[in-house]
Give the backbone structure.
Amino acid sequence: MGHISLDKIVALQRNPVNTRNLCILAHVDHGKTTLADCLVASNGIISSRLAGKLRYLDSREDEQLRGITMKSSAISLHFRNGEQDYLLNLIDSPGHVDFSSEVSTAVRLCDGAIVVVDAVEGVCPQTQVVLRQAWLENIKPVLVINKIDRLITELKLTSLEAYGHVQKILGQVNAVTGTLFTSRVLEERAEKEKEEEEQKDSEAFSGDQLYDWSAGLEETDDSHLYFSPDQGNVVFASAIDGWGFSIQQFAQIYSQRMGIRAEVLLKTLWGDFYLNAKAKKIMKGAQAKGKKPLFVQLVLDNIWSLYDAVVIRRDKQRVEKVVTSLGIKVMARDLSHSDPKVLLSAICSQWLPVSKSVLSMVCEKLPSPLDMEVERVEKLMSVGARQFESMPQQTQQLKKAFLQCSCEENAPVIVFVSKMFAVDNKALPQNKQRPLTQEEIARRRELARQRQADRMESNQGLTESQRAPSPSEAAPQESQPVRLNPVKTESLVSPDSKSEKEEEQKETFIAFARVYSGTVKKGQKVFVLGPKYDPAQGLSVLPESCTASDCELEVPHLSCCTVDSLYLLMGRELEELKEVPAGNVLGIGGLEEFILKSATLSSSPACPPFTPLNFEATPIVRVAVEPKHPSEMPKLVQGMRLLNQADPCVEVLIQETGEHVLITAGEVHLQRCLDDLQSRFAQIEISSSKPIIPFRETVVRPPKVDMVNEDLGKQQKVAIIHQVKEEASQGRLSSTLHVDTTGLVTLTTPNKMATLCIRAIALPQEVTSLLESNTELIRTLEHINMTLRESKSLDVSLRTLEAIAGLKAQLESLLKGRKWRNAVERIWAFGPRRCGPNILLNSVEDYHRLSVWQCLGNAATDVGSQAAVIRDYDNSIISGFQLATLSGPMCEEPLMGVCFSVERWEVQSSTLPQHQDQQEENAACLEASEAGTAEEGGIKNLSEGPSGGLSQMKSRPEAASADCYGPVSGQLIAAMKEACRQAFQAQPQRLMAAMYTCEIMATAEVLGRVYGVLGKREGRVLHEEMKEGTDMFIIKAVLPVAESFGFADQIRKRTSGLASPQLVFSHWEVIASDPYWVPTTEEEYLHFGEKADSANQALKYMNAVRRRKGLYVEEKIVEHAEKQRTLSKNK
Ligand SMILES: Nc1nc2c(ncn2[C@@H]2O[C@H](COP(=O)(O)OP(=O)(O)OP(=O)(O)O)[C@@H](O)[C@H]2O)c(=O)[nH]1
Ligand SMILES: [Mg+2]
């Protein structure tokens, strides 16, 4: 526990003014854990000699082996800043993209963050991501520019060059912050304008309005946001050598030494100022006059000369001089150590200890839990589309509790659990070996003595019996087993020891949490609020002042649990606590039954669940796993359940095919999950499939040229007719299905009661990406529509409505032209899963359906004069569309960027339901009944259906026997799905591949090899630039996920570890080649040969997927069959 006692920490926990909850954020390998080591060492938890080498917070074996952090872990530290004692709850987070979900869980619990930037590499992709994450959670960052030593020893910059370099890095970081800030101001500005406009509208004010975008920016003061050494929010450091400083420290040193006021120095130490030695004055304009800036002269030069003396020249005399001038003591052992770095850290850690500069910056610049902003509280409390103001009064009052952060008895308890983590049972404090008391030692000694005596005796007996097995001596021998037996049997069958053993293997889950209000006590009962819990509903059901201990009613998404144990998180160790007051990070045991990954706990049912965490990473790499021995399946299933709970980002599922699938964020994450599963959670041998690569299926516009760039002209049409004819002859076109030359599919249900005409159209690429990036919004829209249809009321926040209107406007601007006339209003549904990037379009002439935009209010009027309705079986059409878009005909992968336009939909009137089918989805029932009751004309409309096809169908004799085909809705769903698939196949089909982007940093020597690897894996370089001030190149490239496995390793190997890329999922891209392509024109025959067996990448991908899914793969197994020859004939 170091030099601070548990009691002291418990006392400090009660003083939120002096508590800081903070995390360390950075790009991978920028030195977070090394810096954390230095801070931990300052508390005596590890020796300062080992700081930087131990990486104490990387407690997992694989973290130490790979040298990267994979899990965020917390530690509580004590720091004395001036006269005050501070408690710092520090969380170290991983920097690798695969683990960015761990960053999200850490950031949520903090009020501030230390952002670390490598002085050589500067701002990297993850630096930007973490800055954004901090920004989104409204937490305040401070900056540490780390690895300054690399500028001296690796880049060999002079102090002046280094100054310029560091200035540039600061500029980069501030540019990122600036962008974040500007976007928010503009957003707020737009909101305000809108409100004003509405106000004016209501006042019937008319007149031209000037829109001045810059106005918001000018008014808002943003100076406090930026990092600047003179603001005191920047520290320069070398964590590995143990030093770090802020301008303040040097200002103090020099104000004493030079007699200049500290405030003056503070303002001038950073910037374009220089010291005029003659006039003994600080003047402006160092650059213009070619003088050394003050920062270089007074600060950097000292450090440079120290490195020069200690590391580069190893000049003993100079070192001794420096040591005496600094007034520090260095041990002789360090002075004569063969590694100069040892001496360097011995000097630096006394002169400019990094822990002191960083921690005092943290205490002074980061907010305490009491300083939480109102905006942040409201953001935490308002989930999804819900508006803060629309919540019940009691809920709104809880805002005060957040802001007061009081730990009084009567304050409501509010706790947020951001993740669950597994620890070995043995690591729990209650199971740890404690030092023995005197009596216990005495008792044990007595026992041991007894055992020893027994053994001696039995040995004696044994030897004696061997020597002389006389019957007279047999009696005592017999008695021996009697004496020994009880002991033996006890140890063998004792139920205690057995269950203990089982227990030992088990993992215990601990919730990683923070108390926002009140005091949690051990044994207390609290409510667990699920993400969908609605406080309004809870309050209306539960009696007033109901507590978790006397709650007996069932409320949806609300349960009660007991807080079993509370822990202080101390890196690798846990300390048991009795209670934890507001404003602290803690571990809670005994919640694994109640919480899957994250949850809100509260003593009050008025508390809303916190907004879900912002995850940056998309789980994309999937593998199927199975046990080596099939009988161990239950263990695997149990193990996967535990893994799912222990990792914020992993997804586990059982696919339709019955495979158990893990979905992870990337290769490194996958490896960690498999390791964990194998060695901790399932403890069985596991075999995993090759990564399952996701694809999407889409249609494109018919190409104008063929594969050899010849104009297709009429040839294409000939080909299509040819294809249709062929299919017809193969019997694929039945009497109920017809495909015309333009790709319009007409399909009748088997009972001949409904007919559908559908066409598939490729969506413009911008529309697809717009839909793709707005999945969440579309889901919210769908949710709102559902609620409206159920005639429930829902308070939707203005922001959400605006976003929906924005989406609609964007769609309208993108879907232009004759083909898309009025298309946005006619959107019927999105799919798959009602929120995907495909559109179902209502082009049925006589069906004026309620618009999906109905929540915006003006939908019905736009469609036309006729009242908008929802027909019966409307939902069957949507369900069929959902099914069709979920798995396409090429290889049963989801569709993307396809629009299905329903051009005709006829239902025979006798199919109208007498009573609704049970099998139909609930929603469908609701819609249908609503259509019947709310809109009187609903049913009439249908029965009057004025179509010719209808009367035709009526005349058919089969129609009477319709009932034998089962429920109509089911048939309609199947027919809709089939029609969509047929329409899809009538267009040119393509596969879409998932793409990663990566940024690779490489030196000029290995650049060629990087390009080589990229080229081989079908990667595409987007741009390349040289990083200023270094000899590094930054290459930005995209790479198909399908080709990415082993990419990072290969690059590392080929470049001897100089370049290591990080892959981030970016987008979906259409693979240009047609998987069904066969040569049709003469030129193509000439160019590709009859079989066209040159590689068709799309076909390869498609067949691989089909093979994996056990679907039929059309390929010849024997390519060149030859008759077997007998050898003898040959002779
Ligand atoms: N030269 C130099 N190397 C450093 C410094 N700080 C850290 N390193 C080295 O940088 C490497 C990465 O350090 P870590 O502390 O593991 O980095 P991290 O940010 O925790 O990495 P992740 O947790 O994987 O994101 C290690 O090899 C350290 O020895 C420094 O100040 N100077
Ligand atoms: Mg780390």
The CA atoms of residues 1079 and 1090 lie 7 Å apart. The chain has a mean pLDDT of 80. The two ends are 88 Å apart (CA to CA). Residues 159-202 form the longest helix (44 residues).
